[in-house]
Amino acid sequence: MSGETVAGDRYFQPEVETMARADLEAIQEAKLLDLLPYAYERSALINATWTEAGVHPRDIKSLDDFRERAPFISKDAIRVFRDDKGDPYGGLLCFDESELTAITSTSGTTGDPTLVPEVWGGERREDATPALVREFYEIGTRPGDYFTCILFTFRGAFFAMVHSLGAVPVFLDHHPGELRRFVELSLELRPTNLYNFSNVLISELARTCEEMKVDPRDVMSSYHGIVHGGEPLGTRSRKLLDEWGVAGFEHTAVGDAGAATECREHDGCHFWEDSVIAEHLDPDNNETVADGTRGELVVTALDNRTMPLVRFRSDDLVDLTRERCGCGRTHGRIKTAGRKGDEVVIDGQSVLPMDVWEAIERFDETAMGLFQIIRTGQQMDALRLRVGHDGSTKQPDELSDRLMGAVTEATGVTPEIELVPNDDLLRLGPPHKIPRVAKR
Amino acid sequence: MTELWGVGSFAVGDRILPYPVSKDDHNRDIGSAMKAVSSLGIHEQSRALVLSMLSEAAQYWPVQIGLLITKAQFSLADASRFDAFRTAMFLKAMHYDVVLGINTDVLDGLDDLGHSYPDVFGKSPVLAARAGAYERLRDAGLSPRWWLHVGPTVAVECDQLAGAHVDGNEWQLDVADGEILLTARNPRAAVVDRLATGVRGEIVTDACACGREDPRVVPRD
Fold first, then answer.
1. Is this prediction's ipTM beyond 0.95?
2. Do A104 and B52 touch (CB under 8 A)?
3. Could you identify which of A87, A147, A276, B218 might form a hypothetical disulfide with A167, taking C-beta atoms 3.0 to 4.6 angstroms apart as the criterion?
């Protein structure tokens, strides 16, 4: 990629981003048929899974064959393989470990981080997709702009995408303690984009601006938008961004096979179908569910030759559509509802973290939206919530009553509330998000 | 106008200062990082764990490029209290020849988790530690080397354990009242001219037994 490919008002690669669906599927099919024998030969887990299912890559001659016959892999299958075989890569690594450039890891919010083996060429991973470059361009990043990178180091050099647009990264740590510097640098350098904010940072920025006696609208005035990831953008965060006059762009994972980000239409997060096959299936019978409805996201990473995921069950429940977006792009979009493993059912009523989020954020004492659902199994006799508060209340029972009322109104289930200080939950970090479900 | 690579930061005492880096600066910093990597004994097929923060990208990204060029393998963890579990996870999962950038935040995080430093770091032959962490590792019975932040650059101790090397092609060292002053030898996007670094110590300019002729900082405890 280079600046020479920049064209049009909002598309970085217009010919790919607005490609006819038939052409997109032809690309997927060609890449898939190339990938399958490679993965089957080299990935011990894929080989074992396909062998057990009695399927061979030569049986797959089309996308339809793939959807009909290819077996699934899952996080659990990877973990079992890892533990049984003593293979830290869960049987997915497609060549000798000595050939790797880097071994990074997932965030590890919900448990042990998963190792991510990588092969980098120059300053970026060789198998990296153009994800983020297209999104940053859509948001308005142009050569010469300053671009605020406020993140962690553990996933490597995502800022290569910023460089590939000709923009200049401004590096900050994703930590509330960095927000004073964020304010100062934003006022001085006037960056146009930011990757990425979280509910915690947005909430803390409001306080930091107050302490510094600066107007957050001035701080954010140069930003065309900010990318928000790690967790869904909460109602309170969205309200703050609206007050500050800056657009938030939701950003989410595509089942460990890539990332998806909103465009300026804010109608779902685009995933790039020239690099991933995304299916959304009924978790109970594995049938494809209708476009625009909710299903489990199942992904196949088409460009990852290091550790390819083939028909990987993400556990994520998403609303998925492939209708052409208002922005003109033809690639699919998802809206994440939650994780299948996070769902609790009380008297037949399903509750996901997203269902209680707004009810908790609406009160000043719990505005940071820090909470956990206590989940010992999917079927529960009560909805138990651990909720973080800022310590300002003198009447915790009264706060609990307000929270109970709001959650009951939102979910139809009356919860049991355990109040804890915000810091107790933030310690479960990393700072941008906490585990939303706990076993105890 | 000089084309910028990025805007990082560096610390002087408790102050964090912005640090713009041009593409020319960055390319020369990769050369300095190659020397640092070599001083730590890293070679092809070595494996290194790099502990840093994103705000330190101007210092640590050249190190990662240096590791890429050397064809060493590396892993990344934040040098923060929150992310100390990741450091422990990597060091438990596989062998690392070098852990570099260890700081007090990571050690605090390991304390929180109830890990002892010898248990976590004991199998790695080279531990390159920042000020504060160096002393704590040493007190725990380990044998760290200096990975000393000196203003916007990093001084690295070789196996001679006779002070931490600074790239003399890029930086000039002086001392005033026991404090190391740093001056850029070449034009940079940031002006660095007799910068009071907050590092207290002595400068050694004799050639090191390792073969490097770069000046060394011997920190004062």
1. yes
2. no
3. A147
